[in-house]
Amino acid sequence: MGLGLLTLSATLPSVTTSGAPNADNVTLNTSSMLQYQVILFFFSLYLVAFGQGGHKPCVQAFGADQFDAEHPVECKAKSSFFNWWYFSIAAGILLTLLILNYIQENLSWVLGFAIPAIVMAVGLLVFVLGTMTYRFSVKGDEESPFVRIGRVFILAIRNRKIASSAIATEESLKQFKFLDKALLAPDSTMEQGKVCSMREVEEAKAVLRLAPIWATCLIYAVVFAQTSTLFTKQGATMDRSITRGIEIPAATLQCFISFSILLFIPIYDRIVVPLARAFTGKPGGITTLQRIGTGIAVSAMAMVIAALVEMKRLQTAREHGLVDKPNVTVPMRVWWLVPQYSLCGLSDVLAIVGLQEFYYDQMPNELRSIGIALYLSILGVGSFLSSFLISVIETVTGKDGRDSWFADNLNRAHLDYFYWLLAALSALGLALYVYSARSYIYARRSTS
C-alpha cells in the first residue's frame, strides 16, 4: 500500500496542472495540490516504515520456524537459511543500486516507485499461495511470555530481602542468581502460592543475558553506519571515471558491499562451515558468538584501512594543490576504496547474519520475532549514536573558526582521524564483547 501510494504521489503534478481555465487557477490549483502531494508522500513513507516494522522481524523469524531445530539435517539447514536470507537481501540492494536508482534519476520517478510496488504485490501473492505448506507454531493455553518473564522480575524484587540460603543448591542457576529468589514463595500470606517455575526463571535469565551482547555490538553498528554516509562523501571527491564520459555515481559505490556479500556468503556457507564443522562438530561450524566477534574484528580492520586510504587521499590533494579546491576531483582512483567496502561486506556476512541467528535462537520460542527486532534495534541505535558522535566531534573540533574533522571541504577535514577513532573504539568494543561472550551461557545446546 505504501509503495502504491508513493507511485500515486509521483503522478499528481502532471494530473493537477492540466485543464485549468487560466494561469491564476493553474498556480492556485498547483500550489494546493502540491501541499496534498507532500502530505500523501510522507504518509506513504511512514506507511512503508510501519509495514517494514511488522515485516522485517516477523518474516525472518517465521522463515526460520519452518526448520525443526531438533532434526539434525534441518538444524544445519536453518543455519544456512540465515546466510541465504542475507544473500537475497544483498542481491535486492544491488539491483536497486544498479537499476532502480538509474530509472528514478534518469527515466521516471513514477516508474521507479511502481516497479517495487509491483514486485511487493507479486511477493505477497507468492507468500499467500504458500499458506498451506507452512509450519505454524501452535500455541496452547500458556500465559504470554511477557507475563511470565515480568512475574519473575517482580517476585525476585519482592523477595530480595529473603536470604539466598533459602534456595536449594541444586536449584540455583549459574548467572543472575538474584532472579532465583522468584522460586521462593513471598512472606506475605496474601501472596502465598505465587511462585515461578525453574523454566520461567531460565527464560528471564535468557533474556537478561542478551543485554551485554546487545550493548557491546553498538560500536559495530556505528561503523556500519559509515558505509552509506562518510564513505560516499569520501568517494565523491575521487576519480570515479570508468571510461571517457562514464562516471560511477558516488552512491553506487555501495555496490562493492553487495558484491562482497554475494561473494563471501557462498564461500562461507559451502566451504568454511563444512570445514569448521568437521573439526568442531557444531551445526554452524563455529558458534554464533564466535561468528559475531570475528565480524566485529573485521569491521575494526576496515576502519584501519579506511583511515590509511583517507590519509593517502589528503596527501594527494596537498601534492596537487587542491586543498582549497573542493570542487576539483582529487587525482586518485576510486578503486582505492574497494578494500574498505569489501571488508565491510565481509563483516556484514559474519556479524549481521550472526546477530540475526543469535537473537532468533536465544530468545524464548514465543519471542523470536522480538529477538529479530532486538537485532535490528542495534543497527538503529548505532545510527543515532553515529550521528551524536559526529555532532559532538563537529562542535569540539570546529571551535574558534577552525576546520572540523567533518568540514564541508573534505580536503581540509580529517575523516582519517575519525576512522582511527572508530578503529580504537571497535577494538575496545571487541574486548568488551569477548568478555561478555566468554561468560555467556547458551539457552539451547544446538548453538553452543
TrEMBL record:
<feature type="transmembrane region" description="Helical">
    <location>
        <begin position="33"/>
        <end position="50"/>
    </location>
</feature>
<feature type="signal peptide">
    <location>
        <begin position="1"/>
        <end position="17"/>
    </location>
</feature>
<dbReference type="GO" id="GO:0016020">
    <property type="term" value="C:membrane"/>
</dbReference>
<keyword id="KW-0812">Transmembrane</keyword>
<dbReference type="Pfam" id="PF00854">
    <property type="entry name" value="PTR2"/>
</dbReference>
<dbReference type="InterPro" id="IPR000109">
    <property type="entry name" value="POT_fam"/>
</dbReference>
<keyword id="KW-1133">Transmembrane helix</keyword>
<dbReference type="GO" id="GO:0022857">
    <property type="term" value="F:transmembrane transporter activity"/>
</dbReference>
<feature type="transmembrane region" description="Helical">
    <location>
        <begin position="372"/>
        <end position="397"/>
    </location>
</feature>
<feature type="transmembrane region" description="Helical">
    <location>
        <begin position="289"/>
        <end position="309"/>
    </location>
</feature>
<feature type="transmembrane region" description="Helical">
    <location>
        <begin position="84"/>
        <end position="103"/>
    </location>
</feature>
<feature type="transmembrane region" description="Helical">
    <location>
        <begin position="109"/>
        <end position="129"/>
    </location>
</feature>
<keyword id="KW-0732">Signal</keyword>
<protein>
    <recommendedName>
        <fullName>Major facilitator superfamily (MFS) profile domain-containing protein</fullName>
    </recommendedName>
</protein>
<feature type="transmembrane region" description="Helical">
    <location>
        <begin position="417"/>
        <end position="435"/>
    </location>
</feature>
<dbReference type="InterPro" id="IPR036259">
    <property type="entry name" value="MFS_trans_sf"/>
</dbReference>
<comment type="similarity">
    <text>Belongs to the major facilitator superfamily. Proton-dependent oligopeptide transporter (POT/PTR) (TC 2.A.17) family.</text>
</comment>
<keyword id="KW-0472">Membrane</keyword>
<feature type="transmembrane region" description="Helical">
    <location>
        <begin position="248"/>
        <end position="268"/>
    </location>
</feature>
